[in-house]
Amino acid sequence: MISPKGSRLTEGLLTLLNAFEETLTERLKKLMPKDKDDVLTLSWMKLAMESLCETHNDIKNLITELELPVCDWEEKWIDVYLDISVKLLDLCIAFSSELTKLNQGHLLLQCVLHNLGSTSPKQFVRARSSLDGWKQQISSKNPRVESCRPILENLMGSLNLPKVKNSAKGKVLMRAMYGVKVQTVFVCSIFAAAFTGSATNLLDLNVSDALPWALAFSALQANVNMEIRNLFSVGRVTVLKELEAVDESVKILYPMIQDGVEPAEAELFQNSVSDLGRRAEKLSQGLDVLTKAVDSFFKIVLTGRDALLCNLRVSGPVSDPMVVTNVEQQARR
């Protein structure tokens, strides 16, 4: 990927690139689930998003260390960066909207638990109504998330690197950016699959074995994607583990609430209510930390765009001034 033709890489540039790729390799290894049950837990998804934030921060630091000012960037690099970043912002907005929807569902669960604190028939009716609302909430389609597939396909198509001529620093930047893009598409495709409930959003990326992080990535992708496809193959309502746990509690409680609790079922009923409360709280906590991780990624992408746009205004390397204007309008939408 770094051609021997043209400018050669100095020892200093190779050191920077090697350090970046070694860190990426270790980061990918840390994402390997210790157990198949870890796949698509909210805690694992948080770890994946935090890992992605760290990689994007690393590429920002690398650009600084390369001392490659924007005025030396080729137009095609800038075009690729701006195009990718606006798509990442769209994905973040979609993921955030789904997390908001799930959090709204948690409010309905709180109403259920409040009403089940009494044995009044009226309270049972209210609890049943709230459960009906919760089931409808989690099964409803989110148009924003459903639109992720074409965005992901476009990002996958952008993995091919622009050719770099006569710029050793440019070659390092483009190769490092390739690693960033591969991890980004991988993580975002998993989020899209989890939130849409469809394995069609999973992407299988092929990377060159010559890359030092290729083995770690391929093993991670094969492990995670296979487990997600297995989860979908058994007809799960949702592949999010904490959400599935809540759904299991709901399935146990709903008939009791609907038909009434017999004296012999009193202990089972109370235990089931306690289980629902515990699982609902775990779901809520997981959604909160994952929402913060997605928000952090959104801010990293947005601040990176802002920094580039500020430099473009000063150095003006883009031949068409409308490019900057249009991108700024996209960033403000």
TrEMBL record:
Transmembrane segments: none annotated. Its main location: membrane. It is found in: Membrane. It is a single-pass membrane protein. Pfam families: ROH1-like. InterPro entries: ROH1-like. PANTHER family: BPS1-LIKE PROTEIN. Belongs to the ROH1 family. This is Protein BPS1, chloroplastic. The lineage of its organism: Eukaryota, Viridiplantae, Streptophyta, Embryophyta, Tracheophyta.
